[in-house]
Amino acid sequence: GYGRFGIMYNDNDSNALLDSSTDLTSRMRLQIDATAESDAGVVFGARARIQADGNGTTNGAGADFNGVRYFARSGGFEVGVGNIFGALESMPGQYPVDMGLTGLGYDYTAFDGNGDAYTSTGDGALNGVEVLYSAGDLAVHVSASDVSDRVAGYVAYTWSGWTFAVGGQDSDNAGDTEWTATAGGSFGIADVTLAYADNGTNGDRVILAGRFDVGAATDVEVYVGDQDGADTGYGIDFNHDLGGGTSLRGGVVKQFDGDTVADMGVRFNF
Amino acid sequence: GYGRFGIMYNDNDSNALLDSSTDLTSRMRLQIDATAESDAGVVFGARARIQADGNGTTNGAGADFNGVRYFARSGGFEVGVGNIFGALESMPGQYPVDMGLTGLGYDYTAFDGNGDAYTSTGDGALNGVEVLYSAGDLAVHVSASDVSDRVAGYVAYTWSGWTFAVGGQDSDNAGDTEWTATAGGSFGIADVTLAYADNGTNGDRVILAGRFDVGAATDVEVYVGDQDGADTGYGIDFNHDLGGGTSLRGGVVKQFDGDTVADMGVRFNF
Amino acid sequence: GYGRFGIMYNDNDSNALLDSSTDLTSRMRLQIDATAESDAGVVFGARARIQADGNGTTNGAGADFNGVRYFARSGGFEVGVGNIFGALESMPGQYPVDMGLTGLGYDYTAFDGNGDAYTSTGDGALNGVEVLYSAGDLAVHVSASDVSDRVAGYVAYTWSGWTFAVGGQDSDNAGDTEWTATAGGSFGIADVTLAYADNGTNGDRVILAGRFDVGAATDVEVYVGDQDGADTGYGIDFNHDLGGGTSLRGGVVKQFDGDTVADMGVRFNF
After folding, report:
1. I need a labelling partner for C62 at 20 to 30 A (CA). Which of C69, C201, C202, C222 fits?
2. What class does CATH assign to C61-269?
3. Based on the number of CB atoms within 10 Å of its own CB, is C216 exposed (0-12), middle (13-18) or buried (19 or more)?
4. Is B2-269 a domain of CATH 2.40.160.10?
């Protein structure tokens, strides 16, 4: 797992009733991966998390198990049930950067969570089932659940260092993602990702994001995004590696909802 | 602990309002056994579990500690307090088989839970205390709690590979088990158990159960049961060892309440 | 962490509606300390606990994470945020003894919890921040939180085996501690502590406490206390080391509220 703590600022411009706020932000994530391997080499396992999230109103007390994901894996083939990862959530290019200490709203995720996704503090998809397959440069992921009868999938292929992925979804929810496509790779000085998603009644979203190394231990990430019905969103952050699994992180983001948010702090893996 | 996941079917015949259902079933059990040993050789310890149970309506999110059992043990003598095991629950012959992946209702438990028992997801007996003693072929277990002022005990003796046990209970609850007796052993091709319990106003129950090895890694379990006020219940299952602490399991049971239930899936120990 | 279990008696004289009671008392504390160290030698870490407390009405089921404390430490300097320790709670002399198995009410804590303090089962101080510094015989601790806008601090100095500490606090709560002072050291046959606190509208409290070794593995602790508006309180206990991190403990206390309470049991560290 990991821990992180720092300061979070929000101008709260999207809510006329709120002043700007500056509060502590913190998280402790304890991840429990339990596995066993059959004589035939099939790995069976379960993953659960206890994640305590702190902010201006709590230090995270009361954290308990999230929904559990179970899997059976053999070679490049994996079947998962329970709190599934979800095909769209797992698709390359949906999380092209990791803004600041906390993600700062994750506006840069093209499909915007309009599909099944692993949750660290909730229960996850109901009767969720998924199949993952990878072979060389090819990756395929199909997931389904009782949540709006979602069925989703993606296919990704990596060619000369560039990864192209296309995903689609069928569901009973008009606001769910219809289809999404991403392309990402390296220009030498920068890793760049372009992502698009048709999120039904939640509108289209286009994201352009990049990561630049600016020193032996530091990188800078930026993104700019266009969302139907919202002003342009953008953000910039830095990650400075302190060694030993520790890092200093911070960023500033203009969110689609109009808020400007910023954070800075320390993350450590354990 | 262990994990398991698979499919559960229930025809729900006992409830006219329900159709049959087929859902995921899953469990992740994290067991925490913490002990310390005094210079005199007395072992003090505590056992707690975090158990996440998944089904058609949840992946088990929110799992937290059950009631804790504490103990002091020296040689064949043990005192337990808190979420106690309970004498009747621990008596040889009460769990002669373990049907399918999930137990499939545990109708084959003669005393039918009408006494104090360790619980993996609840709090357990209030002010529970128990004493366990074993010496050679003899085992004695007495337990008491503030739940209906229960006092229960059993004596078991093993003779030429057969184990005979008799248990009794005094309580303020008319539906609690009055007395129960079991006999179990091996006929070579099969392990067989016969169990009887007088469960007060919950009626008498008689169970005949057996386990047969049908291959190097596979066994089949069967039971037939008679319960006052219900049709005959019966069930059959298989357990196939996959090695490395993993197994494939499944079964079908006709329950005393009229439901037919079936399950199949994988279990792995960690 | 540790476990403990035993018997607790309370005459409940402070409540005319209650008879005396004798119940099980138990606790299982699971402490999770997760840390990582940067290349520059700064240690980042998080501490969380899952603590199950049992008594006459529960075996502690439902225990989950408390509020998390995060810290960055380098040499004798430490910054903590979240569920902070709190300066007054951490001040030398505030916990001069540890009565019986359970603390028996902690009346012997001069500042009486009228300040920020680490909690093992709750959330702790909101937006809590603290700085700890120690160098040789000097220790300084300053803490602040959004709880009544508390700011508190202490300075402690150790001289020839005696530790003197003075603490003060500013807050919006008239019942919070204003200032407190303690002195503690050894007379050879006994460790003795004298502590005073001005707890605002909660009155002054003076405590005299001592610990005596009465054998190679046994000590006896006593205290006598004066609290504004209450009769004199006092208590005596014993701790007998059983080796291997296990001990037998028990005590009797006359509390400021008029109750006489007693406990006895076993504690084991793991």
Report:
1. C69
2. mainly beta
3. exposed
4. yes
